[in-house]
Amino acid sequence: MGFVPHTEAEKQEMLAKIGVKSVEDLIKIIPESVRLKGDLQLPPAIAEQEAVAMINNYAKMNKTTDDYVCFMGGGAYDHFIPAIVGSVIEKPEFKTAYTPYQAEISQGTLQAMYEYQSMICALTGMEISNASMYDCGTALAEACYLACAKNRKTHFVIAGTVNSHLTEVMESECAGKKFDFEYVAASDGTADLKALEAAITDNTSAVIVQHPNYNGTLEDVRAIAELAHAKKALFAVIVDPISLGVLETPNNYNADIVIAEGQSLGIPLCYGGPYLGILATTKDLLRQIPGRMSGATEDSDGNRGFVLTMQTREQHIKREKATSNICSNEGLYMLAAAVYMATMGKQGIKEVAEQSFQKAHYLAAEIAKIPGFSMANDKPFFKEFLVKTPVCPCKIVKAAMDAGIIAGIKVGDDKLLIAVTEKRTKAEMDQFVEVLKKF
Questions:
Q1: Secondary structure class of 405 (helix, strand, coil)
Q2: What are the pLDDT digits (tens) for 253-284?
Q3: Mean pLDDT of the chain
Q4: What is the DSSP letter of 154?
Q5: DSSP β-ladder status, 128-129 and 277-281
Q6: CA distance 72 to 291
Q7: What is the DSSP letter of 76?
Q8: 311 falls in which pLDDT band (50, 70, 90)?
Q9: Cα gap 356→80, rounded to integer Å
Q10: Nearest 5°: phi and psi at 239?
Q11: What are 150-203's pLDDT values in tens digits?
Q12: What is the per-residue pLDDT for 319?
């Protein structure tokens, strides 16, 4: 049976409205080489029992960090996840929940959003947080929209080395706005303060920095904030939420916008997603914040309840005043992050951060002792660091994989980006060092 319900007359009416004569005219921009020719060539139908067996066999082919020792980072990290996180998010009342349009019958979801927002504010030191976004890349793009909505400026300066996955999403999503993105970095990948000062103009909407940066190095965020604010630009910082267990909160160095990837907060690696976008800011930017916020209130009888306080989307307010392209929060993983933060508490997150820090520095020191290997720079780092290698990192990655180790991420032809979390043991790190000694 066909799945297009429109009659031929309706199709012609739609084509005429669009301004083309045929469907072929509509899709002619798509190259012939990528178009489907003929049917999908699906295999014959099979019984449900057979389909389940086939899918299970495919699933067994997958390998996870349960099968390997993982030193890979670059934005997604192999942290321990308490069992309670999975137990809570598997509850059907959360797992099947949709957007809480009718707040009076969505109290559980709204309370989860409120608790998440409160803990993100406590973690970052910021005054307000939304109820999450799709991932860090889309949160970064929305931060650019937020800054432009506030000061009506279109120039953005990216200081130091920011994860290219994030900046590619940012540039793609913001393409329609014709924002001007300028990248300023020193030879070691950190922010070049002199070049940054020269790059910031009166039309600069925001200065964006990743701290720790993509190479794991800590940036001079106080100095960057001062340079941005001197030209009345906003200061946006992308953070690793776990690092805030030991590093200063962004509020302490006068960040205006905080963006983060929430995967480290109780979310599995999931072969690359879905993840969780964190966005927090100051009260001054309340009216520009994208997405939605949950607030606590009281009803006429004095009972505590929760409502959607801010909904800056075109379905709720005038289209021209809507602030966000991202209209839905990542509800289930927002809940996972909230459960993780509530379970770990301040001391738990601090311990995860301290263990990651200490273990990363132990491994870095051991690798630096190996002839031919050295640190890419001598600047401070948190849990991730860049190593110069005597051979192409691809050879190291392959050899380590054969030994049951995911070595890290190849950076250029002679550098390897290595991440260490609290899960890594001394025996695992020493085993990794022995693999490296063979080069």
A1: strand
A2: 999 999 999 999 999 999 999 999 999 999 99
A3: 93
A4: -
A5: antiparallel
A6: 31
A7: -
A8: confident
A9: 11
A10: -120, 160
A11: 999 999 999 999 999 999 999 999 998 999 999 999 999 999 999 999 999 999
A12: 66
Please give the torsion angle defined by the CA atoms of residues 408, 241, 155 and 322, in that order, rounded to the nearest 10 degrees: 120
Q: Which of 2-16, 144-158, 297-311, 322-336 has the lowest mean pLDDT?
A: 322-336
Residues 125-139: pLDDT tens digits?
A: 999 999 999 999 999
pTM of whole model > 0.70? yes
pLDDT at 313: 61
CA distances to 232, 327, 375, 386 from 389, in Å? 42, 44, 9, 10
Residue 309: which of 286, 322, 325, 292 has the closest Cα? 292
Give the residue among 214, 253, 234, 250 at the shortest CA–CA distance from 145: 234
Query: Are 430 and 366 in contact, with CB atoms under 8 Å apart?
Result: yes
Tokens (6 digits) for 189: 């990948």
Note the pLDDT tens digit of each residue in 93-102. Answer: 888 766 666 6
Per-residue model confidence (pLDDT) at position 292: 85
DSSP readout, 286-339?
GGG--SEEEEEEE-TTS-EEEEEEEE-STTTS-GGG---S--S--HHHHHHHHH
Q: Which domains does the chain have, with CATH numbers?
A: 69-79+345-437 (3.90.1150.10), 83-340 (3.40.640.10)
- Per-residue confidence (pLDDT) for residue 60, from 0 to 100: 93
The residue count of the chain comes to 439
DSSP code string of 228-262:
HHHTT-EEEEEE-GGGGGTSPPGGGGT-SEEEEEG
Q: Measured at the alpha carbon of residue 379, what is the angle toward residues 373 and 382, in degrees to the nearest 5?
A: 90
Say which residues have a Cβ less than 8 Å from residue 178's Cβ, sequence separation at least 6: 154
Q: Is there a contact between 279 and 258 (Cβ–Cβ < 8 Å)?
A: yes
Distances (CA, A) of 156 to 213, 237, 299: 17, 13, 44
Sign of CA dihedral 259, 307, 333, 316: negative
Query: What is the C-alpha separation between 5 and 330, in angstroms, rounded?
Result: 33
CB contact at 8 A, 75 and 269:
no
* Cβ-contact 433, 78 below 8 angstroms: no
Burial of 375 (0-12, 13-18, 19+ CB in 10 A): middle
